[in-house]
Amino acid sequence: MANTIMNIRQELSEQVGKEVKLTAYESRNRVIEHTGVLSNTYPSVFIIDLGTVQDSVDRVSYSYIDILTGSVELQFN
């Protein structure tokens, strides 16, 4: 499992600076979509700067576990 997380982190590190569409499945009926730029990766989280201010939020962060479990999906343009 740790090897998979390291692979996800490595793949995202190679995509820093690229535009991304993020889909987050928050709960059973709540899906949040953001478009922005992958600004940075850290050992436990990655940060996306949003292109437009939505609900007064200009950046979001998620953990690599969110991608592994399928609660977050990323599509690079």
What does this structure look like?
- With 77 residues, the protein is α+β, with helices and mostly antiparallel strands.
- The protein contains 2 helices and 5 strands, in the order αββββαβ.
- It has helices at 2-13, 64-69; strands at residues 19-25, 31-41, 45-54, 57-63, 72-76.
- It has a 5-stranded antiparallel sheet.
- The radius of gyration is 12 Å and the shape is globular.
- The termini are far apart.
- The mean pLDDT is 89.
Keywords:
77 residues; alpha+beta; 5-stranded antiparallel sheet; 23% helix; 2 helices; globular
Q: What can be said about this structure in brief?
A:
With 77 residues, the chain is an alpha+beta fold.
List the helices and strands and how they pair.
Elements: H1 2-13, E1 19-25, E2 31-41, E3 45-54, E4 57-63, H2 64-69, E5 72-76
Antiparallel strand pairs: 1-2, 1-5, 2-3, 3-4
